[in-house]
Amino acid sequence: MKKIVLFSLLIVFATSCEKQWLDMDPVGQKFETNYYETEEEIFSGLVAAYSILQPKYYSGWSSYYFLANFPSDDAKVVGGGTGDRPEYHEIGDFNTVPTNPAVLQLWRRDFYGIYRANVVLANANPETSQNSVEYIAEAKFLRAYFYFELVRFFGDVPLITGTLGPDEYNQPRDPAEEVFAQIINDLSEAADDLPAKSALSDMELYRATKGAANALLGKVYLYMASPYYQQEYDFQESANKYYELAAGEFEQVINAGYDLEDNYDDIWRYSHENGIESIFEIEYANIDRGGDWGNGRVNGGNIDVQMSGPRGISTDTLLAGWGFDMVSQDLIAAYDAAGDSARKYGTAYGEEFLTEIGASGWEQNEGYTGWFSKKRAPWASITSEVDPEWNFETNERMIRYADVLLMCAEAYLQSGTGDPSPLVNQVRERAMLDPLGSVTMDNIKLERRLELAMEGHRFFDLVRWGDAASELGELGFIEGKHEVFPIPQSEIDNSNGELEQNDNY
Question: Is the pLDDT higher at 483 or at 389?
């Protein structure tokens, strides 16, 4: 009876006061149209933009790290065999097609993040407080981060810097030069207003800092200066000018108080997250809510750790994983040739270690290399007993100080504006290797591979240097095609043909 009476009253009210009813704001509810009215609500929108960094699983498998690492000569896609997650085997074999679901989820993840950053920028008022100024700077950093990822993976992409109405959804691709210009603008403005890492509390270390903006901006300039990007795109400045700009940004980071961890093997340990070497990390947490196979965005753990561990083991030290991201024999041989045992065993563990911790009977499926990624090892101590595969807390080290030292050395060498040797030798000293008297590009290329292996840098380094065809050709890389990934076919279809496919896909 109460429901009938209430329904009748609503009909009377709606028909007698139709205009007033339509004009009323929802009572006791918040929608996007009336939400971003306070500083706290703006901050919640910013947290939502940060949160989209985390997901690697939506309704289909997706990992930005795997898509960066699998096409390199550092990694081998194994898992349960070629029929297990074929989308990843496609990527590792350079057979990626426009309908690959992992590529689609990467595209969506980055544009979700851009949308959320744009919402903050559309609603935050810098005149409100210093907090709002910093929120705007963080949103610009995040938008730049997502766009740099997109332009590296796909080349030309739609450049969207505001919220769109329904009649604007069908966006064409914009030239990568315009996207790079927006990235530079966002990072330059963000660096002016972001705090130093030292100004953050322990609970705030997930947030972008001035050092992170300087480091990412320097990396963007380094890409723009490199052979492939200079040849492919019509930038406004010469390669030498961009190398000089990159060096200037990296120098600001070097002078900001960062340092190398004493022990290379500590970098990816749980106890050293957000440590002295960390410039920007993606945070993961054990929120113990269990698996959500229909919507991985609600989980806080790093499922790439589960994806990378050995299949079929059971120990108190290391849990079983799914064996996808194996370390290549080629990378192990590179460590051995350089006499680099510190970084070899900080990057990989093999059968000897598994036997030492009491493991046995691990699967050796097609492509098995005998070596697993230590940087994403499924340590039993950093996850929950309930659905542990969802709850590994290992952070992603997206920008760290050793990377900056090597990028600055490259910028110095190419521009002639500084001496690269002390920077490279700092990295080598930590690895307990002899210093180099002089440094060449070949030295820097090798140091980057050995220092940053299995962190998602190698493939993009080879592309920007113009070395991908020579180094990856035997693995299936085709010059003029595989420097970028295909635009997801479903996104082309959804755009009513406004989006165009990359060449040769």
Answer: 483
Q: State how far the Cα of 93 lies from the Cα of 76, in Å rounded to an integer.
A: 9
Strands 325-327 and 75-77: antiparallel
Q: At the topology level of CATH, where does 37-193+467-494 sit?
A: 1.25.40
- On whether the CB atoms of residues 363 and 313 are closer than 8 A, the answer is no
d(CA 380, CA 403): 29
- CA–CA distance, 56 with 305 (Å, rounded to integer): 11
Residues 6 or more apart whose Cβ sits within 8 Å of residue 171: 158, 160, 164, 495, 498, 499
Which backbone phi and psi does 249 adopt, to 5 degrees? -70, -45
Q: Are 484 and 155 in contact (CB under 8 A)?
A: yes
Beta-sheet strands, E only, within 243-360: 278-282, 325-327, 348-350
User: What ranges do the domains of the chain cover?
Assistant: 37-193+467-494, 300-394
Q: How far apart are CA 277 and CA 261, in angstroms?
A: 6
Residues near 90 by beta carbon (within 8 Å), at least 6 away in sequence: 96, 97, 100
Picking from 70, 62, 69, 65, the residue whose alpha carbon sits closest to that of residue 95 is 70
The C-alpha angle with vertex 404 and arms to 402 and 407, in degrees rounded to 5, equals 110
Helix (H) or strand (E) holding 304: helix 303-308
* Span 370-406, pLDDT tens digits: 999 999 999 999 998 878 888 899 999 999 999 999 9
Q: Which residues is 397 bridged to in the sheet? A: 281
pTM metric for this prediction: 0.92
- Radius of gyration for the alpha carbons in the chain, expressed in angstroms and rounded: 24
- CB count within 10 Å of CB 393 equals 20
pLDDT at position 9, please? 30
3-state secondary structure of 161: coil
Please write the tens of the pLDDT for every residue from 405-458.
999 999 999 999 999 999 999 999 999 999 999 999 999 999 999 999 999 999
Distance of CA 453 to the CA centre of its chain: 15
